[in-house]
Amino acid sequence: MYQSYFTTIVTQVSALIMLLPTIARGMESISSIGEVLNEYDVEDNDGKIVIEDIEGCFDFDNVSFRYEGSDKHVLSYFDLKVEAGGETVAFVGGESGAGKSTAMNLLIGFHLPTNGRLKVDGHDIAAINRRTYRKHIAVVPQNTILFSGSIRENISYGLKDVSEVDVEAAVKAANLTDLIKDLPEGLDTKIGERGGNKLSGGQRQRIAIARAIIREPKVIFFDEATSALDSVSENLILEAMDNLSKGRTTFIVAHRLSTIRKADKICVMEGGGNVLNMVPMKS
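Given the sequence above, the corresponding C-alpha cells read:
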C-alpha cells in the first residue's frame, strides 16, 4: 500500500516538473503582452480631424525628413503636387536611400515631415486622424503577407459581410480566375503554413492585389510590387495593377520601366529629393 502511495506521489511530482517549462513560457508571454499593453500609442489621434472620405489630392510643400538620431535628411525641400481623379505617380531612383520608400511612408502616414507640410485634400497630414485616413487607402508591398487560412479568407481579411459577388469581382480584376479554377477547393483552398509556400511570387502578389481591390480604396500604393517576378508573372501583375488603379490616385515605387510605363508623373529621386519631374506619353 505504501509503495502504491509513493508511486502516485512521484508520478504527480514528475508531471508537475514536466509542466514547469510550459508555465515559465506562459509567464514570459504574459509579461510580453503586458509590455505591449502598457506601451504608449505611437500615434496621437485624439482630437484630430476625422477623415470620412478622401478625393486623393496630395501636396508636398517644401518637405524635408530625417530619421530620429540621424543628422542627414533623406528628403530635402521636396515639392510635388498630385491631383485627384486618378493620377498615377511613380518614384524611381537607382540607389538605395534616395528617398523613394520614405516618400511613400510619409504619404501613408507612418512618418511626419521634419520640416515643411504634406497636405491630404488640403489638410495637413499632422492634423488628421491617420487611423481614419488609412481606411481609404490600400498598400501592395513587395513582400506579401498571407495567412494560413483559405484564399477567400486572405482576400477578405479584416472585412465584415463580404458578398460572393465582391470576392469574385476582386478575383477577376486581380487575374486570379485561372488559378482559382485549377485549385481543388477553389477559393476555399487552404494556403497552408507560413502563408502560401505552395504559391509562386506572382500568385501571392495577385492575392494581395485582390485584397486591395475588394476594399475599394481611394488611394493605392505599390511598393516594388513586381521587382522579383518573371516576365509572365509581371504581365499578369501589371494588368491587375491597371485594373486596380483606374480612377484612383496611385503611387508606385519601382525600378522596372515596364511598371511605370503608364505613370502621369515620374519623380526621379536622388540624394534627398526629386531631381526630375516628367510627364511620359501613355501607350
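The chain has two domains: 1-39, 58-278. Try to locate this feature in the C-alpha cell string yourself.
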